[in-house]
């Protein structure tokens, strides 16, 4: 007898102890039921669920009606799963038990309620984990539950009703959602991820073989469900089905979530082809920056959604908003940011054509920020030479400066704004209005500054004076150079001529110069015999020549000249102009080609900035004629 009790206990432990009552009859502590082969609490969960189910379905009509016991069952499942992950074994046994008759209708409802979790209410972590565990258990066995509605989807409902223990329930159910739409609408990204993972396994073809999902969809087709085709039973198409109430796809449902929007969209876009619906366009129309960012975070999707049309949407004024309460300013800022995001994500140069470029350039605010967002490799080479023309036409000074610097050759390109119009230089568009009529001076400040930028670039880019003169032929333009090289310095005194010149042109009414001169060239200063000086020991006491300096000062102060690209002065061999003053002139006029004939010029007098700017420097030596003579030595650019 002493051995009978322990032996009986061992035999009971070896079998499945199904309830606390059996454990007590066996003389075992209540905790013994946690130690069977199924894992901790598995049997207790199974028995508890079965008892609750039996109680709730005692009246057949109540099985799945308004007073359904499913909420109680779900609460028990969640409660036990929060205690231990191993409780899932008991849940699975309960759903697989033939006596409980847990059919797809019940599983679908459990799944729908499990994913209907409002993350905005900040549920505790254990609650989320438990619901996710239950969700995965349900869809691992029957993935199709996540994508269907057992009552309102024609054809699919037949498959549910035929195997349902309570067909009356289908008449009472008013819920038209699917678990996937519900999880997306709540922003439950982890749940969506599991559904998509199991959906791929169930629906998508591998190695050319039919899947269970294909067989199911083809069976549903016989019930007039989806129009069946090989492609239509793939997960890509299934994920594009609309909610029967809201007509939203899962993607659009996710955009309406109170939280988890970005994460949920990213999970849905793992099936990249679903991005083709109108969700992205809808987000652009409503200036939803969060959704736009989520779409653009998927490189595989970007090439599909970033197009000329989508960019033009962000560059157009917002339409009247039908939802939300954001003010006009916040919407404008969001639209600006979306435009920058799209332009920065362009993967096809066709998306940044002339129409888009012009739309950006003529924009009143944020235009430069949007433009600078683009990858220069995505800009069509055929468009680059004519961006300057667009900027000039629309009087956008900041863009004129940018394009003139990035594409300097464009100042000498001809282009027609209209398809059948005459081709014109950029400067023409600054001097004529939209109707092609000449604009009379004085110009406004913007037009003046644009003219300055263009003419400066033109003078730099066109070395031939004849060509440059032809380009300016139809424009009001000042002198492009200062040339006294043809003056007869052998017969007349240069200094006297210069004094007379300055005196006659003090007002600047008869003569005007551009801000940038192509060159300034002087006549030889020591060919008049009467003025030719000889070297003396007391040369430092000799008269200091300043005629060239006086002309340069006049050009700057009276004529407004700021830049002289090339400066050529054949100075005196003896007693030339002062080197230090000469260096100041080179720096002040930003000289690039410096040819001042003076023996033994000291490079140390030149300012570092002036040295960096000089592209050509002519040096003259007073050494032996047989070795060097007085011909210039052209120095490299870096001094």
TrEMBL record:
InterPro entries: Ankyrin_rpt (IPR002110), Ankyrin_rpt-contain_sf (IPR036770). The keyword Flavoprotein does not apply. ANK repeats lie at residues 175-199. This is Uncharacterized protein. Transmembrane segments: none annotated. Keywords: ANK repeat. It holds the Pfam family Ank. The keyword DNA damage does not apply.
